[in-house]
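Hello,

Our lab assistant flagged a job as stuck in the queue for most of the afternoon. It eventually completed. Since we weren't sure the result was trustworthy after the delay, we are filing this so someone can double-check. Below is the sequence as submitted and the structure that was eventually returned. Let us know if re-running is recommended.
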Amino acid sequence: MTKRKSQTLRLLEMTSDTIIIKAEHISKSFAGVKALDDVDITIYSGQVNTIVGENGAGKSTLMKILAGIYQDYEGRLFLDNYPISFADPKDAQNHGVAIIHQELNLVPNLSIAENIYLGRESTNRLGFIADKNLRRQTIDLLEQLNLDVDPSTPVAQLKVGQQQIVEIAKALSYNARLLVMDEPTSAISDKEVTILFDLIHDLVSKGVAIVYITHKLDELFKIGDQITVLRDGKCIASRPLAGLEHDDVVRMMVGRDIDTFFVKDHSKTEEIGFRVEKLSLAHPKRKNDYLFHDISFRVHKGEVLGLFGLMGAGRSELLETIFGVFNLSLGQIYVEEQPVTISSPHDAIDAGIGLVPENRQIEGLVLDMTVAENTSLANLEPVLWHGFLSSRLEEQFTQSFIDRLNIKTSSVHSAIETLSGGNQQKVVLAKWLATNPKILLLDEPTRGIDINAKTEIYRLINTLAQSGLAIVMVSSELPEILAIADRILVLSRGRLAGEFPGEEATEEELLKAAVSAVASRS
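-- returned structure --
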């Protein structure tokens, strides 16, 4: 019997109440600050064990302890009821514990097979890599995960959802019994989410334990069995999900009721701050086709205009084109009713337009720079002294935004990558507010941040609208866009499919408009 078949049989023998890992009294500090404080957690085989909490609650720290990334901590781990201390991540993997990070850990230019077995390639008697063995082993793994792709395909050619499956295949190649998934649906389409959930159900049915970290609470009730709630480094609750409702989980996470989250007290004026007429962007590959076509809308000063649509509707492309990332095929842009020509982001900034992009870490920030450097990046003029960069002015300038936006950081000189997702997003906002914009384009401004940080972003959007900014906000979360927007436009397959007053719109109406063009063209 092969090792893989033996492993599968052993997993199938486990029941859904078999304990894989148990952590007792886990505490971990960084520079004197407790990230975890006396946390207990029990992970069961054949179940989806969900972990939720705000950014900074301790989720990632706990998972890194379970996966062997951190070895210096207080408390004890038990694997199969035996005490254990992992020496490093490889040691954890050899014991069947693997983690898939939110930022996938793959080498784009290597093939699927090379990524899965990187550093563990089988060799022949002469010491050369046995490509046939590598290919055969990879095909076996991909078949288990229903991914019909040639193992020699470079990872860079795969969709994000397919790359996640490659990460799962890599974990299973270590005969993983416990698979930790950190925000696995943050950057994939609804179709890919469905495929991922089917795969999770299949793994669970074979006895694999899944630890699932997410900010999307609706996902908990679709796939979760157990839930552990962390808040400020402490375990608030650890129990079966059955019997809990959405609001119960929110209340445990943040310690208050959900009705305090959304804020809308705008001061919409009659003055038009921003207007576009008949914008179109040609498709880069398909002749006589468009990524979006004949789009016209206006935004008043002090108004939040919501932009909703399904994946592929053209929402991000529309905002990026307005910001000068792409050159318009047709159309005209007006700022305060004056026509402007925008052929680059520099032109957009000069016209008073700022863009908070969908992917803050890749497109919104420079991760190896500090908080101060990122804040002043789009507008150096306030931090120059006689033409030279002044560290003192930059510190003062950045501190003013830290205070204004309540950015949690130990210093203006902290590396931006050390901040939580919510605080990174505030720095992106600070960068554009530093340019004194007239129009602010927000592309999924609360994606991947916790509920408390979302509330702070909502309050900030409300404050900016009250100050007279014209704001366009893209969001895939219907409750969010309904609560925040004064008016909502729906895009479908690159075309304007509907316009709704915010106070009258419903989720059903928005979804119906979003699929209308898709249905008519399918």
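-- support follow-up --
The delay was a queue issue, not a problem with the job. The result is valid. The domain at 261-352+437-522 is CATH 3.40.50.300 (Rossmann fold). The chain has four domains: 3-96+176-256, 106-174, 261-352+437-522, 365-436.
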